[in-house]
Amino acid sequence: MARLDVTETFKGICFPGHLHTQESLRYATEFKFQDTDTLIVTYPKSGTTWMQEIVTLISCKGDPAKSQMQPNWTRAPWIEQYYCSDVLKAAQGPRLLSTHLPYKLLAPALQRSKAKVIYVARNPKDVIVSYYHFHKMANFLKDPGTFTEFLSTFQEGTVYYGSWFDHVKEWTSNARNIDNFLYITYEEMWEDLRSSLEKVSRFLQCPLMEDELSSAQKSCSFSTMKENSMVNYTLVPQEIMDHSKGKFMRKGQIGDWVNTFSTEQSRNFDISYASKMADSVLTFVWETKKSCIDSESLPVYNS
């Protein structure tokens, strides 16, 4: 299934046709969640791959064998992508799932289960830069044009998967409507990976011994993941993802946006952000290592 130039529009949101069909998107909105499922929810380029690796390693008690032998898209398939149902037919044990879908599309299905939901957010300036570079190498995504053009499209919410602002606000503001919900940020994981591993393991009720925690931390470090072909997408054919134009796992840093945004672009985005996020309690780390994230305002909800 190539469909590299196809765009699917579903419920007013655009998706890359290479991975999505009308049938696969309907399948996701009607998904039969099981109480033992763990669902990783992210807007694109917000730490999906990282959390997939973290949950895999926690469930394997720090043993890296599975993450070194099985591609992450089969370990934690996106429920809205066309291959998901086939992957899950062969799945055994508790399922690890992923999605980029907005809350409004999954709410009905989730409210019928006690599946665990992990929502990972990232500061939007870094999301924009990462997403822009991904568009330049992924042949199934639209040509992003100049960074100025892409920035404008992103702020309008007309990029693939829709508005970042709507996505993060809808999921986090509806946290109490989900029986088991964990909010964590990319910046938290970057600044203190060990504590983040402990936080996720507590949520999953899968405690790790000290040696298991150390093994997991080593295996899900950015440097290790960057060299792992099961994670870095080098297994994807060149005609689909042109690795000569960039790396899927590029820098993974906080604040790399300063190397792309102009002063004026940053100032204008700040104004737009302040307006669109005025009704949100979320705060993000933009440049510094010192965390200012009010994650306690979005606690873990366990039934």
Automatic annotation (TrEMBL):
Keywords: Catecholamine metabolism, Cytoplasm, Transferase. Transmembrane segments: none annotated. The keyword Cytoplasm applies. Its main location: cytoplasm. GO terms for cellular component: cytoplasm. Its EC number is 2.8.2.-. Pfam families: Sulfotransfer_1. SUPFAM superfamilies: P-loop containing nucleoside triphosphate hydrolases. It is found in: Cytoplasm. Residues 35-280 form the Sulfotransferase domain. One of its GO terms (biological process) is xenobiotic metabolic process. One of its GO terms (molecular function) is sulfotransferase activity. Belongs to the sulfotransferase 1 family. This is Sulfotransferase.
